[in-house]
Amino acid sequence: MSNANVGGVYDHIIQEVINAVRVDFEENGVDDGVLDELKKGWQHKLSQLNVAQFPWDPKPEPPPPAPPVQASAPPPAPAQQSQQQTPSNYTQATLSPQTSAQPASLPGGPHPNGNGVAIKPDPGMLKNDPVIKQEPGLANAQGPPGHPVYNNTANPGRGMAAQRAAQALESQYGPRAAASINAIHMGSQINTAQQGQRPSQAPQQINQQHMNQQQMNQQQMNQQHMNLQQMNQQQMNHQQQMNHQQQMNQQQYRQGIMQQRVQPQQGPHPGASNGLPAAQVDGSGDDFEGILMQRGPDGRPVEMGRVEIDSIIHGQIAARAKQMEGGGLMLPFKEATRHRGTASKKDRTGNPSQVDGPEDDFKDEDLDDDAINSDLDDPDDDKDDDEDDDDSMGHMMLCMYDKVQRVKNKWKCTLKDGVLTVNGREYVFHKATGEYEW
Amino acid sequence: MATSGTNFYDLYRHGSLGVTLTDALDDLISAERIDPQLAIKVLTQFDRIVAESLQEKVKARLTFKGSLDTYRFCDEVWTFLIKNVTFKMDNGSNAVHADKVKIVSCSAKRTDEK
């Protein structure tokens, strides 16, 4: 089967139809010319589809080619116009691509705002100054040698404690303690430099340990007072009643704390006494508090404060928690939507506040209000719907079936009297057999 | 074989021949040259003539193979969506390949019975 006979068959069909409806046309009082017009219009439209070679198209028959020309009196005029307008069209065609090419090339180049939006862990965003607040475990020997206490590789906690001890001694005893302070500094220095020679430095070690113990005691006492004070404050807040006794207690504790604080001058941080080796040194300058940078609206890197970083982390954790409980399924609807609203608002209005890498995928799902995490919600399923779009004159076969058989996933069917449109060509067949696997 | 012309499928109206006929009829209707009822009569005749012509005038045979993607049988109409199809003509001419073909097929028995 080729599509050579398609033209003949179609021509036959057209003739048959026209002849069959001629009576109907006459009965309706419609002029014969209209019927002729219908035939020509039909043939012309069919020729435009260019699905096969039709007998009325080629030259052999002068009358058939004539109909398209005659029937489409308007079409020739546009054709001439288009020929006349070709020069101007050319200039437009040659000019417009150039003008449009410049904006088109922009996306390839550096986007001015794109960098602000892109949330990538830029190495330059991390503040790499020597004044970075270094965590004890991460401390390295990059710091300036003038501050050996902060630069203690072997035992940072001890180094800080030594500094504190030195300051305490200085404040308590003034110049008289200079010798001891020097000893402490020496000890810490030697600790850093000569880790293996500890036994030889026993006196300093003992001295330092003694100071550490002293400080630990102070810290513990201080912490106890602080805890009591906090408990009292909480009680007061909860009960909302001014109890005179408690007030008195509070005052007493405050006085006690003040007395405790007078001695060491530099009050140890409450959190430092939880068994961890001085996890945080507070009170240093705020100028290097931020360790992360973000780009401001004007593109300049802006240091992020601790509060901002905390809010970012909080947002992340909240989003993660929401994801774990099914995108707000377990929450009351009001609450779920409120949370989602605030979270997304924060992400959109605030500048790209994420600095921990590319955006995670679950955020997009979170924004979908109707998501119920069902397979039916999967947007990927929408791809299957394209089977139903009968792309008008696309690949299609219209036919009758004699038999359709199936054995497991193997299908066999016998079709007849079909019209097949494929790859822009049309075929007709009397009988067709198809075998396909599902 | 029915003679009234009402017992034929309007299936082929969705082919190129039927679409172009419908377009031409629409043009005439919008130009108020013919009645819509007349156009419906034309299409009814078309249904009959296409079916008869394909039965009588066409002798070609065709085989095709492919992988069936979707099948559907509803109201006595089979619909197949076949991917990677290869059509072979009985005259030995070159095979035709298509990525995707939709087959809409009505029962051949119904027209024969009536």
UniProtKB/TrEMBL annotation, chain A:
Compositionally skewed regions (Acidic residues) per UniProt: 357-391
Localization terms from the record: Nucleus
Keywords linked to the UniProt accession: Nucleus, Transcription
GO terms under cellular component: transcription factor TFIIA complex
UniProt biased composition (Polar residues): 89-103
Classification via InterPro entries: TFIIA_asu/bsu (IPR004855), TFIIA_b-brl (IPR009088)
One of the GO biological process terms: transcription initiation at RNA polymerase II promoter
Annotated SUPFAM superfamilies: Transcription factor IIA (TFIIA), alpha-helical domain, Transcription factor IIA (TFIIA), beta-barrel domain
Pfam family name, one: TFIIA
Composition bias type Pro residues, residue spans: 61-78
Biased composition (Low complexity): 79-88, 193-260
Region of interest (Disordered), ranges: 53-162, 191-288, 337-391
Family, similarity comment: Belongs to the TFIIA subunit 1 family.
PANTHER family: TRANSCRIPTION INITIATION FACTOR IIA SUBUNIT 1
Protein name: Transcription initiation factor IIA large subunit
From TrEMBL, chain B:
Annotated coiled-coil segments of the chain: none
Pfam family, one: TFIIA_gamma_N
Limits of the Transcription initiation factor IIA gamma subunit N-terminal domain: 8-54
Domain Transcription initiation factor IIA gamma subunit C-terminal, chain residue ranges per copy: 65-108
Presence of the UniProt keyword Nucleus in the record: yes
A single GO cellular-component term on record: transcription factor TFIIA complex
Domain of life: Eukaryota
Keywords: Nucleus, Transcription, Transcription regulation
InterPro entries (UniProt xref): TFIIA_a-hlx, TFIIA_b-brl, TFIIA_gsu, TFIIA_gsu_C, TFIIA_gsu_N
Family (UniProt): Belongs to the TFIIA subunit 2 family.
PANTHER family according to UniProt: TRANSCRIPTION INITIATION FACTOR IIA SUBUNIT 2
Subunit description: TFIIA is a heterodimer composed of the large TOA1 and the small TOA2 subunits.
Protein name as annotated: Transcription initiation factor IIA subunit 2
Upper lineage: Eukaryota, Fungi, Dikarya, Ascomycota, Pezizomycotina
